[in-house]
Amino acid sequence: MLSPLNETETIMAQTAHAGQRLDRFLADHLPGLSRSRLKAMVQEGDVSAQNAVLTDPNAKVRAGVAYHVALRPAVSAVPLGQDIPFTILFEDAHLIVLDKPAGLVVHPAPGNLDGTLVNALIAHCGDSLTGIGGEKRPGIVHRLDKETSGVMVAAKTQFAHAALSALFAARDLDRSYLALCWGLPSPLAGSIQGPIGRDPRDRKRMAIVSRGGKPALTHYKTLRPFGTGAALVSCQLATGRTHQIRVHLAHTGHPLIGDPVYLRRRPAAAGFLPLPARDLALDFPRQALHAASLGFVHPVTGKPVQFETKPPADFAALLAALDESAIGDR
């Protein structure tokens, strides 16, 4: 029987349980919770054993080990409004264009059940946003990674949601990103093409794959080289795959500065940057990627609209340091 919410349920694995998947083992002993919910709870860090948090639902159960499950209060399937500040670039009765700060997740998901842009939009727009395009992601027609900043548009009506979704699906819009990458791309401008899918060696990463990927094309142009140590690059998406810019630039040997997923070791190009820019770049806490502009045809007025936003303070400070290092290196 389940314990009251806010308590911990402890399950001792017996010899017969050894080798079972963790989520299946938990589902067999906690019938009040579905296997999918228990899988999400594992991924959210609610399960532990032997003083360690377990986050892999596929982990094999070990006999004689006590597994502890934190039973939290149920979270509403429909996101609730939360007063989270964000900068509005444009708003009318049909849509809202905003400058998403780095660190803000776009919509609720395992590990981020609230405190997202969706929660902020619901609080700002009120009940009128409820259910637009779906209960769990109301208003959302595209997304940016949590640590990527910049321009986003959200729909406020079903008509606008359908129209904007069609624009994004057809790539009938203009999106430009600013990226700070390690090294100097060669050639300085061009296109990177390669199908993107799950990395077969690490399912949490994306990669250019030989089978099963989706076509992906990124156009890039080097705006400012900082010697051969780093570069400011403008990227335009011809397709919109998960982590596309990050994957494509990393594949060419120029991963984004600060990328926690696709930058696995100290880049050799760091040795070509003078201090203090080198330390600032090596210590940058997120991928240096900013959605700088977004242009599209307004779904109701039919008029083309264009929105731009400057990089946030941390990106700007790193860029200034790289500029200073380039001047001093001449």
Summarize the structure.
This protein has 330 residues and is an alpha+beta fold. It is built from seven helices and 15 strands. Helix 1 crosses helix 2.
Largest sheet: 9 strands, mixed
Question: Beta-sheet strand percentage?
Answer: 25-35%
Unreliable spans are: 1-5
Multimeric status of the protein: single chain
- Cα-to-Cα separation, first versus last residue: 72 Å
CATH homologous superfamily (4th level) name of the largest domain: Pseudouridine synthase
Q: What is the CATH topology assignment of the largest domain?
A: Pseudouridine synthase
Shape: globular
Protein architecture, described:
The strands form 3 sheets. Strands 5, 6, 7, 8, 9, 12, 13, 14 and 15 form a 9-stranded mixed beta sheet that branches. A 4-stranded antiparallel beta sheet has the order 1-4-2-3. Strands 10-11 form a two-stranded antiparallel ribbon. It is globular, with a radius of gyration of 23 Å. A hairpin with a 6-residue loop joins strand 14 and strand 15 (304-308). It has 7 helices and 15 strands. Helix content is 21%, strand content 28%. It folds into 3 domains: 8-70, RNA-binding S4 domain (Structural Genomics Hypothetical 15.5 Kd Protein In mrcA-pckA Intergenic Region, Chain A), CATH 3.10.290; 87-170, Pseudouridine synthase, CATH 3.30.2350.10; 174-328, Pseudouridine synthase (2-Layer Sandwich). The chain has helices at residues 22-29, 35-43, 117-125, 158-170, 244-251, 277-282, 313-328; strands at residues 8-12, 47-49, 52-54, 66-70, 87-91, 95-100, 149-155, 174-182, 189-193, 196-199, 202-208, 217-226, 230-237, 289-297, 304-308. Helix 1 packs across helix 2. With 330 residues, it is of the alpha+beta class.
